[in-house]
Structures are given as C-alpha cells and as structure tokens.
Amino acid sequence: MMTLAYIKQAIISEIEGYEFYRMAAGQTRDVQMKETYLELAEEERKHVVWLQDLHKSIDSGSDFDLMTVDAPPSPEIFKWDKLDREDPKTILSVFGIALQLEKASFEFYKKASEEVEEKSAKELFKILEAWERAHYDVFNKEYNNLQEDWWSEQGFAPF
Fold first, then answer.
1. The predicted structure's pLDDT at residue 75
2. C-alpha to C-alpha distance for 77 and 29, rounded to whole angstroms
3. Separation CA 59–CA 141 (nearest Å)
4. Distance (Å, rounded) from C-alpha 94 to C-alpha 33?
C-alpha cells in the first residue's frame, strides 16, 4: 500500500474513533467517564490533524514537522478509581468496543510504519502506534477490573 493510501485509511480510522468516543460521552451519565471519553475524542481529533498535515506535506513534497506531535499519553492519564459503576454492562460494552478499536489502530500503525518508506510517515506512524497502545493498555486493565466486579455482582465468582 502506498504511503498516501495508508494516511487516508488512518484518517478515516481516527475519525471513526473520534465519533465513537463522542457518542460514548453523550450516552454516559457518569461525569468522569464523559470527561474521559471527550479527552479521548480530542486525542483522536489531534491525530486526524497530524495525518492531514502529513498527507499535505508528502503530497506537496515538503517536510512534515514531527516537532508538532505530542508524546504519547501516560498510561495513568485517567482517574479510573472515580468511575461510576452503576451501569457496569454499558461501561463494559463501551470498553470492549474501545479495546477493539485501539487494538486495530495500533496494529494498523505498526504495519504501516514497517511498510512505508517516507521517514516522516514512518515516525508518525510509530508515535501513533504508541498512543493507541497506551489507550489499549489502560482500557484493558480497567476492563478486566470491571469484568471481575460484574461477574461477582452476577454471582459468577466462586465463593
């Protein structure tokens, strides 16, 4: 796949993530989760802008400035201990979908970084892979905790 084709696909994927997190924010009653989903949506929006800028620079033959790209977020960026667990099955569903999105994203960026030749594209894809992997790791850890809580509430846990 050509570099510009990877970038176009990445833009679509990031827009899908942006819309998903905005939708999840609109559906939750939990203020902390709403803020978290909106933060994630904003990160996805930033990725779209970076990818659009990369596309323009490659298409025009100019250099892409990687200095405008932030470092991946810390895995501890969200305050999961304040999560409202009143609706665990909805939260589990959102987290499950988020895990799938984030995993597909980091796998896509890993493959793209290995296959493209343009140095700036290769480096941006590596950074985006790290962002998406950090999101995945945070969601996965909390998903497992929520799943254990939910199983316990449903009587699935051994006593």
1. 53
2. 20
3. 40
4. 11
Euclidean distance between CA atoms 76 and 51, whole angstroms: 25
64 CB burial (10 A radius; 0-12, 13-18, 19+)? buried
Give the integer Cα–Cα distance in Å for 19 and 37: 10
**Rounded CA gap, 66 and 123, in Å?**
8
Distance between CA atoms of residues 24 and 100, nearest Å: 15
Spell out the domains of the chain, with CATH numbers in brackets. 3-62+86-153 (1.20.1260.10)
CA dihedral 69, 127, 50, 44 (to 10 degrees): -110
For the segment 9-65, what is each residue's pLDDT rounded down to a tens digit?
999 999 999 999 999 999 888 888 888 889 889 989 998 998 898 888 888 888 877
